[in-house]
Amino acid sequence: MKISRIVARGFRGFTLERSFDCDADVVLVIGPNGTGKTSFFDAVTWALFGEIRRLRGSRDAVRDGYIESKFDDAPATSVDLYLTGAQGGALVTRSAAGVRVITELEEVLESKSAQSWIDNVVLANRRSSEGAEQMFLRTTLLGQEEMASFLRTNSPRERFDSLSSLLGVDGVREFYAYVGRLAKSMSEQVRTAEVELSRVQLRVEGLRVQLADQEARAEQIGEATRTKLVATLKRLSGDASHLGADVVSVGAQASAIDIRDAAADLESQIRALQDQGAARLNAIQDLIAQQPAVTEAVDRADQSADLRSQLDQQVAVLLKEQEQTQSEQSRLLLARQQLDQGSLHAQRANEELVAFLLSGERHIVGDVCPLCQQPIEEADLRSNIRERTKAVPGDIEETARERVKVDEAEVALADRLASITESMGVISQRIAVIEQERRAANQLQTRWLNRARRVVSTGTPPTTQTLQNAIDEEIRRGARLAELQPKASVVARQTATLAAVDEVVETREREQSASQAASEAAARANALRRWESTIAAFGASARKAETELVEELLASQQPIIRSLYQRLRPHPVFTEIGVEFNLLGDNRGEAYFMASSPWGHGNVSTIYSTAQVSAVAICVFVALNLAKPDEGLNVMMMDDPVQSMDDYNILGLVDLLRLAGGNRQLFVATHDDQIGALMRRKLRPRSQGSRTIVHRYTDFTADGPTVMTVIDEFQRADAVFKSRDVGSRIAPAQ
Amino acid sequence: MLGDPQDRFVLVAESEIAVLFAAEVAAAGLEYEAASLSARIGAFLGGFASGNPKAWEAYLCLVVSGGISERPSLAAAVERDLQFCRKLVIDADVSDVEHDPNVALASAIAPLLPLVLDGAFLQEDPFSKLDNRLVVAGQPRQLVSLMFDSWRNRVESAADLLESAEGRFQP
To answer: Searching chain B, which residue's CA lies closest to the CA of residue A183?
Structure first.
């Protein structure tokens, strides 16, 4: 697979779009330094990987900032890479949004699937993209940085690192560098743990010294002092217990702590008894002060009891009167009902009569009277009519008069009942007040008695005399306690000298705790030390693996490197080169490029010029490129490889490239016009259909380089000789 | 001119892109002979085939007898003179020394020969087999696994490593 065109826009040096025709076997990029030759190769790298490895360390803060053109008004960054080959052509487009591949079959792949296609088809790799990029950079694109790195190599160690990088083992180196960082971090952890351990151990030591000192001081407390203190304490405790203290007695063999605690307890209890006595005295005095008020309240309650009795009698009278009134009300209610019935009867008779008179004879003999429900007889009917016409109006008037009397009597009874109810309410309120006063007096008396019983501890109700006696007793007890208190204080102070013993115990506990912490810190430090040595050994192992890998890989490439070296011939005397390795004690590798001649051998780095060392580097790169399987992208790219080379080396390199090119597409950039012209001549098309394309940068502006493109087609060269009879002198062809 | 009986070329050859001349010369007169012969070639190609790309693709093999191997600076000076053509100095006496003459000759004319790629091809990323290599070297497999996971997960501190090692590996 080859590259047929590169189109870049808004990408590094190419502000405006630049399109490079690359449909050729050889593509030369010629231009002064700083005009975008390296951007040309960066475009390929970025299109394939979305990353430019050599710029990783200088990446701008903004994502992909190092990719974008730095000039204003630049279009969005993108690179198109047109590919052709037996596996099928494709267009790879990389932009800030990601990568897209459009295959010859017009299949469109995006993002991960596009990158996967690139990895599998273009790079023909079965590894990660990162590994593929490393492989690409060491076998396909020889950049200035790689070369400069190799040229700057001074020590065997650095040379080994450069070789490791060229062979793609730098991934291993990065890995063990990572392990080294972890080892360093682990060492810092170990140091921190050791500092912590030392701190804890120092603390333990300090506590042990302190403990020894305290133990010595505790021993100095004499036995006589102890006995004397115990005796005094016993006596004081006995006195105090008579006064109500609940002290703990100590024996002669009691420990210093017990003695000290007992003395402190005694002193404390005496103080407590004094406080209790003072409080009791105050309480009794309060009781005495409250006693008249209680008595007065009780007396008042007693007097109220008589009044209560009178009120109860009044209530009884009122209740009786109320009962009579209500009875009268019942009677009136009955009379009222009778009147109402008579009135109704008279009213109806009157209505019937009026109706009779108005309508004429309606009733006949034998009908039932609507009023009395009796059969009407003729005589009755006639007399009734006569009676009724006379009596009915009189009955009605009489009944109305009776009704008025009953109504008046009812009003009078209602007034009387209201008066009785009001009187009973007044009396009830007075009774309630009396009852409340009585309960308050009882409560006051009960509380006072309860307090008095508690204070003076008596079962019978205390009297004033009882209380006065209690005051006297409390005063006497307080005086005795006042005598004991200073003595107890003295004893407590004296027994406090025994505190050293207590300090010993406390310090011993602290020392044990610190020792525990120290052993934990030691365990942690030991675990971290094991990790430290494990990681160090792991790093050394990885380092050794790198050395072995470099040695193995380079050994496999040595024959072709030698072969290339013989063609390049950078040195007139040393016609052979080889690589020797040295594994140092720390598993780090050293590499020596040794040049040999029939007269001896020497170290390339010490006997070769910069240009000659550069030539050796090119041999290594070309060897790696040629060793790459012919799969995927089959190109060789060299970014300005001839810096500092003389004409002889340059001619050798160009011849070498012509030999090495084979079916590879060759991309070479140079800053030198003459070398560019030499390459153009030497790397001209060699078969029908092949082409050499020269992109010459003539100027550089904010838009990017001005590019002139020249395409050389194949031209058949005329034969120089008539025939080719080897060994004979041949006349030139006409 | 090249057809002159006095001409000292013993062999000429031509490919699609280059022309090769070979001549036997003595070490004593190597410098002079080389200059003379290359001038002849220059005159021949320049005069004969102007515009022919082969005009500047001439190679002159000088088979030198008389101990040129002992005078490497002389051979170097001749080879570094790029006027008219590129010159390759071949020691004719190489058979007299301990070296294999075929190998020595092949080395001398290597710039003219095609490359033979019989070296091993680089097929795999060396990093991809590092884990197995470390296990073979005696590193515990769990540790190798732990360290590679830490590397992939960008674990950068010992504390984080210890945390991720919990339950996986203890030294």
So the answer is: B158
CA gap A84, A106 in Å, rounded: 14
Q: By C-alpha distance, which of A641, A710, A635, A715 is closest to A680?
A: A710
A387-425 pLDDT tens trace = 666 656 666 777 788 888 888 888 998 998 999 999 999
Residue B26 CA from chain centroid, whole number: 27
Q: What is the mean pLDDT of chain A?
A: 82
Chain B residues whose beta carbon lies within 8 Å of the beta carbon of residue A684 = 17, 53
Residue A105 CB coordination number (10 Å): 8
Q: Give CA–CA dist A515/A518, Å, rounded.
A: 5
**pTM higher than 0.80:** no
ipTM over 0.85: no
Q: Does A629 touch chain B (CB under 8 A)?
A: yes
The Cα–Cα gap between A507 and A207 comes to 7
> What pLDDT is recorded for position A590?
80
Contact between B14 and A719 using a beta-carbon 8 Å cutoff? yes
Distance CA B37, CA B40 (A): 5
For A54-74, what is the mean pLDDT? 59
Within 8 A of A534 by CB-CB distance, chain B residues are 143, 171
Confidence of residue A592 (pLDDT cuts 50, 70, 90): confident
Instruction: Give the 3-state secondary structure of residue B134.
Output: helix
Judged by CB atoms closer than 8 Å, whether chains meet at B82 and A651 is answered as yes
Q: Letter for the amino acid at A75?
A: P
Is residue A289 scored above 80 in pLDDT? yes
The average pLDDT across A217-242 equals 79
Least Cα separation, residue A599 to chain B (angstroms):
9
Rounded Cα distance, A684 and A517, in Å: 80
CA angle A450-A452-A455, nearest 5°?
Answer: 110
Which residues of B fall within a CB distance of 8 Å from A165?
A: none
* Token digits of residue A91: 């267009």
* Cα–Cα distance, A575 to A602 (Å, whole number): 12
Cα angle for residues A282, A288, A291 (degrees, 5° grid): 140
Nearest to B137 among A545, A563, A658 (CB): A545
pLDDT value at residue A732: 41
Q: Closest to B14 (Cβ–Cβ): which among A188, A682, A724?
A: A724
Confirm if A157 and A593 have CB atoms less than 8 A apart.
Answer: no
